[in-house]
From TrEMBL:
<protein>
    <recommendedName>
        <fullName>RING-type domain-containing protein</fullName>
    </recommendedName>
</protein>
<keyword id="KW-0862">Zinc</keyword>
<feature type="region of interest" description="Disordered">
    <location>
        <begin position="914"/>
        <end position="947"/>
    </location>
</feature>
<feature type="compositionally biased region" description="Polar residues">
    <location>
        <begin position="932"/>
        <end position="947"/>
    </location>
</feature>
<dbReference type="InterPro" id="IPR001841">
    <property type="entry name" value="Znf_RING"/>
</dbReference>
<keyword id="KW-0863">Zinc-finger</keyword>
<keyword id="KW-0479">Metal-binding</keyword>
<feature type="region of interest" description="Disordered">
    <location>
        <begin position="566"/>
        <end position="590"/>
    </location>
</feature>
<dbReference type="InterPro" id="IPR013083">
    <property type="entry name" value="Znf_RING/FYVE/PHD"/>
</dbReference>
<feature type="domain" description="RING-type">
    <location>
        <begin position="39"/>
        <end position="91"/>
    </location>
</feature>
<dbReference type="GO" id="GO:0008270">
    <property type="term" value="F:zinc ion binding"/>
</dbReference>
Length: 1314
């Protein structure tokens, strides 16, 4: 090629590049200038078309844009209706998708016009509502007044000296529980107040009513506040029980003036203490350490009460911010002023409301936060108990009557204002660093309102009564109110729609401070317009018509009052009548329902505008998601924002909107740019130091977008979860391994569950492995590093406690079951379906009917297709807007792969369950209340348990893992679900022993002492310490470890049985006193003698026939490896109540019973069964030996059978054997059943149960856990007491005995939680 030709080629290439760049620039400009162009048919300017009109860009070219209505008319006017329509400009054939879009635009226009009509009518009704006589924005509370000259009697009038605000706000601390001895008194005191209020209402005496309501506000503060501290030493002046008993005695005597005098003195001291604490100064390090220690201490106290979730929140909370000027400003900005007045009276007729609080009080959480008065849930829970006192037992009837009047709006207006006073807590959002302190940067805070428990409970009851009606009104757009699994329905439905329609755009809508800024007047009006919510309205109106007082800081100052902070005065910007004047308090019982009802018209209009296109709108409370074509969804979102601003004064924050589309290019979308909505995305660092952008949005806590977006979010979540687990270990490992295990078992292990349920396994399993590894490290911190290191132990740890595992399920293995179950349960609510009552239940994603088939879940398979059409990729001929039909969606592929993978796991194992059916039938015909995930897990875990059992039984005899597997029973595993309560708490060294022994692993107490000699007493050679502590347990030592272990276990068992109501006695020597001389019978003081004939207990109870011999046949078939245990036939027939002698025995690892054939071959609990079989023989031999002694024969006038005759009169001696793995013999399990049955009948009223039958499950769970932990703890103490003998020299004559390490107070009889 010549030089000139080269120049010409370069010039040609340059012109081509310039042409391409010019075309691309022009294309971008054309996209940006879409709204400045004209319709190709009517030539109207797109910037001037009606808001309800739809602009349609045909696929032939992006500049071919028309009014959808013009296109529809042009398509209808063509001469040949059979031929496909063509573009009016280029005559190219219009695609089916464009045709469907044009048709849908007509439906959209109709929906817009209907919404406009409804909005105009709504505005008219609001104007009429606003014209009603308004309520005062600030409610006036009664002030203190002088007492009357002539007291009416009973000293009720003494409360006149205290204002309603003083009665409603307390600076004092309060006891956590009403003492058992005072529960009846507390109930009677409440009845006194309710009777006084009712008498005042009946007589029309407003002053007396005011007094009664003041007493109702402060009764708990007067009677149940904590005792005053002394001026020196920091102790209490008198003990709590004495102080409270004195107050209740004064109440009974009518000495209310004295009560109030002491109350006022305590309040004065408490306010002074709060002022001093507010001026405390400390360094950043001192404060950090103090808050950390306080958080751990508070968390441990909550663990002891069984409030695991609250304990974990306390442990990981960033705390409450100090009330500075900056923090105060943040709180004030969250609570704007009221724009519209609220009517003083409801203009609608409402019926009288009837409230029943018994079940509501029963379900109240213990240790929940308290409002400004300090009233506690525990004070209300105790009122539901039975007191065997007519007056006290009437308390709930009186409370219901009072609550019904309150809910009906029949009490004075001021009382609602006083009862609504709440505390406002500024919770820190992000940890404060030393740099923040040095730079004087104040933390960002999240305001949390904590109201009074009484009003909260009544609101909960009233709201629950209308929840089904709310769900009917809000369906199918709102998934957060009254919809079980609503979030899962929305996540799965939106994901499938995006998979079907890659050109759809998902927009996440953000409303600024929605709960606090929604117009209160409009909210009340819209709720009142729903007839089904009539019982809800009086109380909602009464609590919202005036501004709520919010108290902040230790001095409990109102939010918009003047504050003196850091040497400066902080005044409110404007004069405010109240603190929370508009909106509704987020987290309050009625708030979510009322808020959702208020925004429902706009949400329904948004949904109706998008439904014609195959999209829609859904919300999870104030998180709203719109889905549809870009040309429809962005204008619809804009109209939604304008509508909620006009009607509800809510601001849609355009800058915080997020949008995503799998296929549509949002970068140059003219509708997005016109709205100003940003594209949802995340920046992910690359290995080369750069970063890459991935698109996506979060839907109700679940990532939805490109694979990189989902993966980046998952990595961040996993990092957060691992950090959470590591912090938990760091905080609790030294303080309490028992609490650490409870945190892992109940909290940490569930942190990833939501993700597993809502994302396919192929996206989560790699991340689940990371969390699994963190959980394993945390669990090993309860024992020692590597305790779960071998494959057998690791597999066992994954099994639930009922299958002899730890319940530390592998999240990697849980993933397919969680995802499949969630999807099936969500899919069943996608489409309309019939209800058992003959009605129709609206589906939330009816537009998916072509994908699943109409009526897919109406009837059991095969009468309804369920998932068969979805998983086959075959659909009906309906093709909404060009959806890609005839192929399996990614969700369908993931579901099918996961389901079939689980089927392969269980195939051939002979375990029945939901995996017996094919994937298209998944979930078909499942019965019972258990969810599908639980049923899937039960089937898979049974298979894994069977496989593990075969592997363990293949281990050599003597392997401690095999021994532990065959030994443990329901008592052995009871500690797994325990927490460190007062009776079940284990010290650090005890718990580590329990943890490792249960798994058959090395003992943390002696594993470092392996090879050292054990200083045995006697003439035999010394034993050598092994890693499992077996030789230490078998050694003959000069200590009382064996006796302490035995006595502590069976003293607890017999004591609990007696406390449960069974008749009997511990160590009943008197049964043989007539036939054995006292010297022989009593032996050494403090022991049961050396004759071995005195049993551990005698009880009158109903036990089954005793069968301890090795079973040689069951129902005619020879099964030598099966013991008498399990079914009713195997355990023998029931017998009438009788006197039974009970003998307790403990056995230790390495002894003959653990080496016996029954222990090796007979399955679970063989060692204790082997020892139990010898008890009766031993007693008969001892009785015969005593009968053979001359002095015993002389005592019995020559009889040679006297002792044996007495023994035979009691029948078989029942053998209560407890093994080293905390397993128990059959007779002990049977005794357990008797104790539970007796406790249920004796104590069901005391625990607040409705019947003995209802109480039985509580006592069974509580007592099994208490005994199981106690058995395991005593064996752990046995080993720990003996550790001092390892490596010690053998005792020489004259040398003092070595002191056993460890001294624990024994629980007294009856310490079980009855």
């Amino acid at each position: 090629m010549s030089y000139l030709e080269v120049l010409e080629e370069e010039a040609r290439s340059q012109r081509l590049r310039l042409h391409i760049e010019h075309q691309l620039l022009r294309q971008e400009e054309n996209r940006q200038l879409l709204f400045e162009s004209r319709c190709g048919i009517c030539l109207c300017d797109f910037s001037e078309v009606e808001e309800t009109a739809t602009i349609c860009q045909l696929g032939c070219h992006h500049t071919h844009a028309f009014c959808a209505g013009c296109l529809r008319s042009a398509f209808g006017a063509r001469s040949n209706q059979q031929a496909p329509p063509d573009c009016p400009l280029c005559k190219a054939q219009v695609s089916e998708a464009d045709q469907a879009f044009v048709e849908a635009a007509a439906g959209r226009s109709a929906a817009c016009h209907a919404a406009k009509t409804r909005a105009d009518a709504d505005a008219t009704r609001q104007a009429a509502w606003d014209a009603l006589p308004p309520a005062a924005e600030k409610v006036s509370l009664p002030d203190a007044r002088a007492p009357p000259a002539v007291p009416p009697g009973g000293e009720w009038e003494c409360i006149d000296a205290h204002s309603a605000f003083q009665c409603a706000v307390s600076p004092c601390s309060h006891v956590l529980e009403v003492p058992d001895s005072l529960r009846g008194e507390w109930a009677r005191a409440n009845v006194d107040v309710f009777d006084f209020i009712q008498a005042a209402k009946s007589s029309g005496d407003e002053l007396a009513l005011e007094r009664g309501l003041k007493w109702q506000l402060c009764l708990h503060d007067v009677l149940l506040r904590g005792p005053a501290r002394t001026s020196r030493g920091g102790g209490r002046s008198i003990d709590v029980s004495t102080s409270l008993a004195l107050r209740f005695q004064r109440w009974r005597n009518g000495e209310r003036a004295a009560l109030l005098c002491a109350w006022e003195a305590d309040r004065t001291r408490a306010w002074s203490a709060r002022r001093r604490s507010a001026h405390r100064r400390e360094s950043f390090e001192e404060r950090t350490e103090r808050e950390r220690s306080a958080a751990v201490s508070a968390a441990l106290a909550l663990f002891a009460d069984g409030e695991i979730s609250r304990a974990m929140r306390m442990l990981h909370s960033l705390g409450i911010a100090d009330l500075s000027a900056s923090v105060l400003l943040q709180l004030r900005r969250k609570h704007p002023e009221r724009d519209r007045p609220v009517p003083h009276d409801l203009p609608v007729q409402v019926p009288a409301v009837r409230v029943s609080l018994t079940e509501t009080f029963r379900k109240l959480r213990r240790r929940a936060g308290t409002g400004p008065s300090g009233n506690r849930n525990e004070y209300l829970r105790v009122l539901t108990h039975s007191f065997d006192d007519a007056k006290a037992d009437s308390v709930m009837q009186k409370y219901d009557a009072f609550a019904s009047e309150l809910a009906s709006g029949d009490l004075p207006t001021w009382f609602y204002g006083a009862a609504s006073i709440a505390s406002l807590m500024p919770l820190v959002k992000k940890a404060v660093t030393q740099a923040d302190v040095e730079a004087m940067r104040q933390p960002d805070v999240r305001p949390v309102v904590v109201g009074e428990v009484t009003l909260r409970s009544i609101l909960t009851s009233v709201t629950a009564s209308v929840a089904p009606a709310m769900a009917d009104v809000l369906a199918p757009q709102q998934v957060a109110v009254g919809v079980s699994g609503g979030i899962s329905i929305m996540i799965n439905g939106i994901r499938i729609l995006l998979e079907q329609r890659g050109d759809f755009v998902l927009v996440k809508i953000d409303l600024k401070n929605a709960y606090n800024e929604i117009d209160r007047s409009a909210l009340l009006r819209r709720c009142s317009e729903v007839p089904e919510l009539a019982p809800f309205m009086p109380l909602l109106h009464a609590t919202l018509m005036s501004a709520t007082s919010l108290l902040v800081g230790p001095q409990r100052t109102r939010l918009f009052e003047q504050h003196h902070l850091e040497g400066q005065t902080c005044r409110a910007e404007t004069s405010r009548g109240g603190d929370s004047a508009t909106g509704t308090q987020q987290g309050g019982p009625p708030s979510s329902g009322a808020f959702c009802i208020a925004i429902q018209p706009e949400l329904a209009a948004l949904d109706a505008e998008l439904r014609p296109f195959g999209g829609g709108a859904w919300a999870e409370m104030d998180d709203i998601f719109a889905l549809g074509p870009a040309a429809a969804v962005f204008p619809a979102v804009k109209r939604f924002g304008e509508a909620v601003k006009a009607s509800l004064n809510l601001e849609m924050q355009v800058s915080k909107l997020e949008c995503f589309s799998p296929e549509y290019n949002l970068s140059h979308c003219p509708w997005r740019e016109a709205l100003g909505a940003p594209v949802g995305m995340v920046l992910v660092p690359e290995e080369d130091g750069g970063s890459r952008t991935y698109r996506g949005v979060m839907v109700a806590g679940c990532p939805m977008g490109e694979a990189g977006f989902v993966d980046a979010w998952l990595r961040a979540q996993v990092s957060s979860i691992v950090s959470y687990i590591d912090k938990t270990v760091l905080s609790l490992r030294a303080a309490s391994p028992h609490a650490l295990w409870a945190a892992i078992y109940y909290s940490c292990s569930a942190k990833f569950d939501f993700i597993l349920r809502h994302l396919p396994p192929d996206k989560t399993v790699s991340h689940a492995r990371v969390v699994d590894a963190a959980l394993t490290r945390a669990a090993e911190a309860c024992g020692y590093e590597g305790v779960l290191g071998d494959a057998i132990t690791a597999r066992r740890a994954r099994l639930p406690a009922r299958m002899r595992g730890l319940g530390l399920r592998s999240l990697e293995e849980v993933a397919p079951a969680a995802f499949c179950a969630c999807f099936v349960e969500a899919a069943e609510r996608f489409l309309d379906r019939s209800t058992p009552g003959g009605g129709r239940e609206r589906g939330f994603f009816q537009m998916l009917a072509p994908l699943f088939g109409h009526g897919a879940f109406e009837l059991p398979y095969p009468n309804s297709p369920r998932l068969s059409r979805f998983l086959s990729g075959c659909t009906t001929n309906v093709n909404p807007l060009g959806a890609q039909l005839g192929q399996l969606t990614p969700t369908g592929e993931s579901f099918k792969k996961a389901w079939e993978g689980m089927q392969r796991e269980v195939r051939g194992e002979g375990v029945a369950g939901p995996l017996d059916v094919r994937a298209p039938e998944a979930g078909n015909g499942r019965a019972g209340s258990a969810g599908l995930q639980r049923q899937l897990t039960q089937q898979r875990e049974q298979v894994k348990r069977n496989q593990l059992s075969r592997s363990i039984l293949g281990l050599p005899h003597g392997d401690t893992r095999r021994e532990a597997w065959l030994a443990v029973d329901s008592f052995s595993s009871a500690w797994v679900s325990s927490w460190p309560s007062a009776q079940n708490r284990c010290e650090a060294r005890e718990f580590r022993e329990i943890f490792c022994t249960y798994l058959g692993r090395e003992s943390p107490a002696v594993r470092a002492l392996v090879g050292k000699s054990i200083a045995c007493s006697g003439r035999g050679p010394p034993r050598v310490c092994d890693a499992f502590g077996v030789q230490l347990g078998l050694a003959t030592l000069n200590d009382r470890a064996h006796g302490n272990c035995h006595d502590d276990i069976f003293s607890r068992v017999i004591g609990d049985a007696l406390h449960a109501g069974l008749r009997g006695k511990e160590e009943p020597r008197e049964i043989f006193s007539a036939v054995i001389p006292p010297v022989t019978l009593n032996g050494t003081a403090g022991t049961r003698g050396k004759n071995g004939i005195v049993p551990d207990g005698r009880l009158h109870c109903k036990l089954r026939e005793s069968r301890t011999a090795r079973c040689t046949g069951t129902r005619g078939q020879a099964h030598p490896s099966v013991r008498w245990r399990g079914t009713t036939v195997q355990r023998g027939p029931e017998q009438p109540p009788a006197e039974h002698l009970l003998e307790g025995k403990t056995i230790h690892r390495g002894g003959p019973h653990y080496m016996s054939a029954r222990a090796r071959d007979d399955g679970q609990g063989g060692a204790v069964a082997d020892r139990a079989n010898l008890v009766q023989r031993d007693y008969e031999a001892r009785a015969a030996a005593l009968d053979a002694k001359p002095h015993v024969q002389a005592w019995n006038n020559g009889s040679r059978d006297a002792v044996s005759s007495v023994l035979r009169s009691f029948g078989i001696v029942r053998s209560l054997v407890v093994g080293a793995y905390a397993e128990a013999s059959d007779d002990l399990h049977r005794l357990f059943d008797c104790v539970v049955e007796s406790a249920s009948k004796q104590h069901w009223r005391r625990i607040g149960a409705r019947s003995a039958k209802e109480a039985r499950s509580y006592f069974a769970t509580t007592l099994r856990r208490a005994w199981g932990v106690h058995f395991a703890r005593e064996f752990a103490r046995h080993r720990i007491r003996r550790v001092v003998f390892v490596g010690a020299p053998r005792r020489q004559p004259g040398r003092p005995l070595a002191t056993a390490d460890g001294d624990w107070p024994a629980l007294s009889a009856g310490d079980a939680d009855f």
